[in-house]
Amino acid sequence: MNDTGIPSTLPQELRQNRTLAGPGSSSAKQATHFWMRPTKPSSRHCREMRERFSCRTVRWAVSSALMHMVMGGETEYAISARDGQGKVIDQVTLLTRFLDHAKRTLGQTSTADRGRFLPNGGLLYLDSGLHMEWATPECTSPYDVVRFLAAGDRIIADLATSMMRRWPEMGGIFCSRSNVDYLSKTLWAAHESYMHEIAPAALPAELIPFLASRVLLGAGGWDYRSPALRFTLSPRAHFITQVSDRDSQYMRPLFHTKDEALSRTGSHRLHVACSETLCSETANILRFGTTALVLALVERGVRPGRDVGLVSPVGALHRFALDPDFRARAVIANRRRLTALEIQRHYLSCAESHLHDLQLPDWAERVCALWRTTLDELEQGPSRVEATLDWAIKRRLFIRRLASRGIEWATLRTWDTALTRLEHVWHAANSDEPFEIRLVLENHPTLTAEIHRLTPFVECQGLSWSHLPEFMSARDELFEMDARFGALDARGLFNILDASGALRHRVPGLDVSAAVESPPQDTRARIRGEVVRRLSGAGTK
């Protein structure tokens, strides 16, 4: 083992790059190594290369490099378990045991105590927020990224199943892709990484309008700020309060500006952490494919964000997220007002107009076709995508569940308005005390006057304060449904719907089984995977 943390038995082409040791010295920096090119070769090596290859070959190599992009994703999993008596197992104890089981099951190829590389080139590790995290290997297409994200889901699910067999005294284990805990009002992220050669200062103006409007591909769920129920296309959107920042661990920016020095060749890593984990293959293809296409355009000199710069990007993000009908408009720099759909169509038009003259990646045309189809369907309303996109699938489930309890979807806005107003009154008088629904039900003196003022508003919607307990009970149930939606086992609501044939999110040609075992063949992940497989099979467990 050398000072980089890379086993010294690895071949030179892997050991020469410190970034391979990846996720750095702390888990918060993990997976940043995946998206950078190898260390710049020496002058002597360059001379040898010039002697070996003709100018024509070099020109072909440069042209080929422009047509390929390196990208990848990371998923953080919520894992919990109970013992045989039904008591919740301490999180540190559980995840330590889970990681130990992963090492025993998958093999150990280094002395790292928080994770390991797998034969498929990916990385499984424990992050600083006490989540098991899966980082895909380097990929050159969004289709490969989605395959390897799904492979990570399968690996985690299989580990949970085998862990139950190993420790049968455990009462059960729950693994979910969902990113929000509504009770504690906390969330964790789904990260994206893209390698590019653009001056970092040029990126915000081109990407921020795109990222704000990309919320139409969100996971769906509830706005944590509401004391009632407020549906949103993206729960994470409401945690974002800044346009940009270098810090993505403690701050929640729309655009992450940190430019890590992970390459000596002029390459940079774009780190995107403003969305959630998605279950839909279609949504995931669009999330990675459209973002990579916008980057490819900027890398080739196009300025797609020039005509759609937002006056208030964070405000636009929040408005877009709360409007599943896509009628909400945001002001852009020239004072026009555009919807999220209109901004996305602008970026799509830029990509389509350059499909055949800028040597875009070979998957670009296919992604553009899917992008256009999806925007056309969204234009017609949520019902057209309720079997395709995560947020629309959830929304349909939520509407049906409320209906089964005799609660109309339209009443959500009534209770949200009333309870939000009461919450403001409470905090104005009791700034340090949390607002609780029992205060309303008990007609607390601080709230009595406002409850009286709100009563006509509530009653004109066909409701009364006596309906509130039933509504809050339904609220708890919908929060639970949201958590179960992304569960990896057969109890997961998305998995149940998918197995029943109720969804149409699948993208043809995604071989997930192969991705569990084998790395991509067109990036350095292939070499890494081969070495890991060799070491794992050589008695190094």
How are the SSEs placed, and which strands pair?
Blueprint: H1 12-15, H2 43-52, H3 55-66, E1 71-83, H4 91-106, E2 115-117, E3 123-126, E4 132-135, H5 142-166, E5 170-176, E6 180-181, E7 186-187, E8 190-196, H6 203-213, E9 221-222, E10 231-232, E11 242-245, E12 253-256, E13 268-275, H7 281-299, H8 313-321, E14 329-331, E15 337-339, H9 340-353, H10 364-379, H11 390-404, H12 411-429, H13 437-441, H14 445-459, H15 468-485, H16 493-500, H17 512-517, H18 525-536
Parallel strand pairs: 11-12
Antiparallel strand pairs: 1-4, 1-5, 1-8, 2-3, 3-4, 6-7, 8-13, 9-10, 14-15
Write a structural description:
It is a single chain. The chain is an alpha+beta fold. Among the domains are: 1-176 and 521-541, no CATH class; 391-500, no CATH class. Helix content is 43%, strand content 13%. Strands 1, 2, 3, 4, 5, 8 and 13 form a 7-stranded antiparallel β-sheet that branches. Strands 6-7 form a two-stranded antiparallel sheet. A two-stranded antiparallel ribbon has the order 9-10. A hairpin with a 5-residue loop joins β2 (115-117) and β3 (123-126). α5 crosses α7 (281-299), α7 crosses α9 (340-353) and α12 (411-429) runs antiparallel to α14.
